[in-house]
Write a structure and sequence with these properties.
The structure is a single chain. By secondary structure, the chain is mostly helical. Helix content is 72%, strand content 0%. The longest helix is centred in the middle third of the chain and has 37 residues.
């Protein structure tokens, strides 16, 4: 975690955006990207250097000029220059296979996603993957290992709604799938590409719609005399059918019944929702296809390191911070090894109050420490080996002390859960604290062995954390923990279980009656009120819950459950 390593990596990564990103750095899915036509002429009076593959000659010349001026201190790269450097290359005509896959994606989204998420989400994504593969192949791009890894991670995240009935891990998985899909399409390996990848998808959506429209127009030229009369006749036929069909249906009830059986039901929100899903499926397939053919080159953006500070100016605040961390951790270790009784006697707090009092502050302290490390690396001294050693020692010590803070926060959460039970909020923030500790470990390893791989490692750890969070079934873990606590201490909060999803049913089924029926009452009511969805819109968790409740229905009466505090009153038994 040295400034030397960081500066060295920064220099290596920023040294040649054309040569490097055309090869390894933009290797997400490509060996090469077709160069844009050199229609834009050179800047007058400036010789045009040889542009690498994927660069427009004029853009490459302007990029080199900006680098020279930035190196001389004249000015730094503006956001407009960043956008120009990251601009995707031009692509050829849209292949016929891409057009067919785009249409299939819209139809699949409309048919499979109208009733909800489930296995149908994975099936609806398949045409979009075909569109991306066909577009990349037509552009001369090939599959790379990191692209395959990110793509598999994206598909695994999209499988979470098929496994879990709970909405909150599914939503987190969908957002993580968006980030992972952007990484697969753009092939980014540096922080600008990791952070700006989803923004590139918005740009590709606009460019992709134009790309597909131009392809359709070019294929329709010369054939207008054949398909235009057919389109006009079809439009007139639809108008006549709608007009006279409505009149005849209002005149005869039997004909109205026959007509309603032959035509699809578009009453309510079914029709508009399916049309929106069709348009969304089209747009997603167009976006991924255009990105796969020519992604935005975010790794070409140059982020200049901050001005190096002197050793005293840089190290003194961090050393003071390390001393503060060390003092706090000394108190935490003393409490951890038997000092709880003394602390509680002197403060008058219970175990739960002591844990609740400090967890959130420690979580924020961990987040702020990561920000401090990022800023410290930007302004770290980097004159020689001595500076690199200083950075390693100071920031390495800060990271090690922060890990103790993470352990203290997790210990406090453990005490809090023992006192009050496990909830969604407590489980999610504890998982976040664990991931932050992993990020700190990755930073320490990067400081020792080089940080070139760190952006991908942090992004991959976030994707893995979200995926693991969805696969473990959070609502099931919460129910399991509370049932185990009830079996051990006889304490349970039946009111909280009314808000859990069907994923909690297998664990709550272990409770004795009437606690079991009271805990499952809210979930059973929701499942009974909703009609069973088709197989492609039903998660595995919901299917298992329906089977369990079908074999052993809820039997406790409303009065019994109310006396146990199952309807809003928090009573511990």
């Amino acid at each position: 975690m040295s400034a030397g390593n960081t500066a060295g990596n920064s220099g290596a990564e920023n040294a040649g955006p054309g040569a490097e990103n055309a090869g390894a750095d933009n290797a997400g899915t490509a060996d090469a990207t077709p160069a844009e036509p050199a229609s834009a002429g050179p800047v007058p009076g400036v010789p045009v250097p040889l542009a690498p593959p994927g660069w427009d000659p004029k853009a490459w010349q302007a990029h080199q000029l900006r680098k020279e001026r930035a190196a001389s201190g004249a000015w730094s790269m503006a956001p407009l220059a960043w956008a120009e450097a990251a601009r995707p290359a031009a692509v050829g005509p849209v292949p016929v296979l891409v057009l067919g896959a785009v249409l299939a994606s819209g139809v699949a989204a409309s048919l499979l996603l109208g009733e909800g998420l489930g296995p149908g989400l994975l099936l609806a994504v398949v045409p979009a993957l075909v569109a991306a593969w066909a577009a990349a192949r037509a552009a001369g791009r090939t599959l790379r290992p990191w692209t395959a890894l990110w793509a598999l991670g994206c598909l695994a995240l999209l499988a979470v709604p098929a496994l879990r009935a709970s909405a909150w891990p599914a939503v987190a998985a969908l957002f993580a799938a968006l980030l992972t899909g952007a990484l697969a399409l753009h092939g980014s390996r540096r922080w600008p590409g990791i952070l700006l990848g989803p923004v590139g998808l918005l740009d590709s959506a606009v460019l992709g719609v134009r790309w597909v429209w131009q392809g359709l127009r070019s294929r329709g030229e010369g054939r207008r005399e054949r398909w235009l009369p057919v389109a006009k006749a079809a439009l007139v036929a639809v108008v006549l059918l709608a007009l006279f069909g409505t009149l005849f249906a209002s005149a005869d009830a039997a004909f109205a019944d026959l007509l309603s059986g032959l035509t699809p039901d578009v009453s309510g929100m079914g029709g508009p929702v399916r049309f929106l899903l069709f348009a969304l499926g089209l747009l997603v397939a167009i976006t991924v296809a255009r990105t796969a053919a020519a992604p935005s080159r975010w790794d070409r953006i140059e982020v200049r390191p901050g001005k190096a500070r002197s050793r005293v100016e840089w190290a003194l605040p961090l050393i003071v911070l390390n001393l503060l961390f060390a003092a706090f951790n000394a108190v935490q270790l003393a409490v951890l090894f038997g000092g709880y009784r003394k602390v509680l006697e002197s403060t008058g707090l219970t175990y739960a109050a002591y844990a609740r009092q400090g967890f959130w502050q420690l979580l924020w302290a961990t987040l702020l420490t990561l920000a401090v490390i990022a800023l410290a690396l930007r302004w770290a001294p980097r004159a020689g080996a001595g500076d690199r050693r200083l950075v390693r020692v100071v920031l390495g010590t800060l990271c090690a002390l922060t890990l103790v803070v993470v352990a203290s926060a997790l210990r406090r959460m453990d005490l809090y859960v023992d006192a009050y039970g496990l909830t969604r909020l407590r489980l999610s923030v504890a998982g976040m604290e664990l991931w932050l500790g992993l990020v700190i470990v990755l930073i320490m390893v990067g400081g020792l062995f080089g940080a070139r791989w760190l952006p991908r490692a942090v992004a991959g750890s976030a994707v893995a954390a979200v995926l693991a969070f969805g696969l473990i079934s959070p609502d099931g873990v919460i129910a399991e923990g509370n049932v185990t606590r009830y079996e051990r201490d006889g304490k349970i909060d039946l009111a909280y279980f009314q808000s859990l999803s069907a994923d909690a049913v297998p664990a709550l089924d272990r409770l004795p009656e009437p606690q079991r029926s009271c805990a499952l009452r809210g979930i059973a009511r929701e499942l009974a009120a909703a009609d069973p969805a088709p197989w492609y819109a039903t998660s595995l968790g919901e299917r298992r819950a329906r089977e369990i409740l079908g074999e052993r229905p809820v039997s406790a009466s409303y009065e019994q459950c109310r006396s146990l505090g199952a309807f809003g009153t928090r009573i511990e038994y």
